[in-house]
Amino acid sequence: MLWRLFYSCWILPNRAYQKLRKNGFGGPTPSFPMGNINDMKKRVIINGDSDFGSSKVTNDIHSTVFPYFAQWQKSHGKVFIYWLGTEPFLYIADPEFLKRMSARVMGKSWGKPTVFKNDREPLFGKGLIMVEGDDWAMTSLMVESTTNMLDRWTALISSGKPEIDIEREITSTAGEIIAKTSFGISYENGRKVFEKLKAMQLTLFKSNRSVGVPFGKFMHPQKTLEAQRLGKEINALLLSTITARKKLKDGAPQTDLLGLLLAKNHVDGSRTDQKTLTTQELVDECKTFFFGGHETTALALTWTLLLLAMHPGWQDQLREEIKEVIGDGELDATMLAGLKKMGWVMNEVLRLYSPAPNAQRQARGDIQVDDIIIPNGTNIWIDVVGMHHDKALWGDDVNEFRPERFEDDLYGGCKHKMGFLPFGFGGRMCVGRNLSMMEYKIVLTLILTKFSFCLSPNYCHSPAILLSLKPALGLPLILQPL
Ligand code: HEM
């Protein structure tokens, strides 16, 4: 048994590793059974350390959020192999290599690494859905939730508390928006799901991770049990929402995401044909959406408010644009395309502080890149933060906030079209990008028309990876009504 285990956990992955090495890829030396995890932990600044965070705000964040990759790049270049436990990963921060590799791959020949699917299952299940929506209904729900948030801010300011933790506020409003637009439920009902998702995110991603290590889950039994418990509770909450909606036979047609999913599927625990989802699959879709649909957009807005607080000239430029495009009238989804400068700002923020800091794939067949073969099963890790902060791709001003670089160029002047990947690439690209752009522009427009803001002296710059790229110590801003 032990030999079999050793064979499948070490000999087999090592064979794949040797194939990759024969192709000329280098990388840090792994050890059994941790791979390079101990090295990675040593280099990570742990959230909670007394010296975590800095009063100096710099956009040069690659070596803060991925210190081990920044270090290994120096010795092994932009494509190399590293190990998570007994799983070798091909690290890529070279867009040309990525382009040549993905040019040979049909959509279905890529998967997501099995090792991550297992690790993240309590959080996402196996969900993957396509997003479509009714623009008008969504706009009014987004405006309603944002207005509630801004009224709360006005009340806080009037009571003498102009300092507000923007990250917490925006995340909660983005949660309310996804709960209403996609599931037709109030934030009160959605809040339990969010609280549990957040607790699970902290349990799974805060520290002591042993992804890829055989029996790694048993090394942290409490965390594993806690994640499983939270996963079950979230499943039960979503299931009760789904069942309650199923019973609503009368009333207005249900055109939100859950209504559309239900219209096409039988929620009876069985699969009736290939196109319908089982109950568990439906619950998983909801989970993926609940999580993926609010945190990334909330972070894009949060990092935007940080950068606009530091660049008040851009606050003014955006207010001017809003006045020209929207005037004093009501916000309408068709006007949003006219907010061009806001689009450049969004792109620049997604470049400097990409909420999704990496993309992952797993080869579902041998992939040939020129005379190199990447064997079937190889895990691939694409370092989006690394590429977005690469001087060779963006020039000497790579770490400066310059939204105008997107004025005449969708790729912001990046020297390679695959060097800018905030929403991923190819057939697995983010399905919610249009929805997120709509929400981003609506929320930012409403904030900018009501308040001006600057950085609080209590702000501590703390970009860190907790699955997404977050300000780990929050974002306190001082707000002033206009
Ligand atoms: C600024 C906001 C957002 C960013 C930066 C973002 C980024 C990403 C990225 C990088 C991926 C992986 C793509 C790849 O592997 O190539 C992804 C996938 C996905 N996103 Fe987004 N996203 C955002 C907003 C949203 C929203 C609003 C929704 C839903 C309403 C959403 C739903 C999804 C889903 C369902 C997937 C597919 C997951 C899978 O393939 O496993 N995203 N997103």
Give your account of this protein's structure.
There is one protein chain. With about 475 residues, the chain is α+β, with helices and mostly antiparallel strands. The chain has a domain at about 1-125 and about 360-395: Uridine Diphospho-n-acetylenolpyruvylglucosamine Reductase, domain 2 (2-Layer Sandwich), CATH 3.30.43.20. Helices cover about 50% and strands about 10% of the residues. The chain is built from 19 helices and twelve strands. It has helices spanning about 1-20, 35-45, 60-65, 65-75, 95-105, 115-125, 135-160, 165-185, 185-205, 215-220, 220-245, 255-265, 280-290, 295-310, 310-325, 340-350, 385-390, 390-395, 435-450, and strands at about 80-85, 85-90, 110, 165, 360-365, 365-370, 370-375, 380-385, 450-455, 465, 470, 475-480. It has a five-stranded mixed β-sheet, with helices on both faces. A three-stranded antiparallel β-sheet has the order 4-12-9. Strands 6-7 form a two-stranded antiparallel ribbon. A hairpin with a 2-residue loop joins strand 1 and strand 2. Helix 7 (about 135-160) runs parallel beside helix 19 (about 435-450), helix 8 (about 165-185) packs antiparallel against helix 14 (about 295-310) and helix 14 (about 295-310) crosses helix 16. It is globular. The N and C termini lie far apart (about 70 Å). Protoporphyrin IX containing FE (HEM) binds near residues 300 and 436. Protoporphyrin IX containing FE binds near residues 131, 289, 292, 430 and 432.
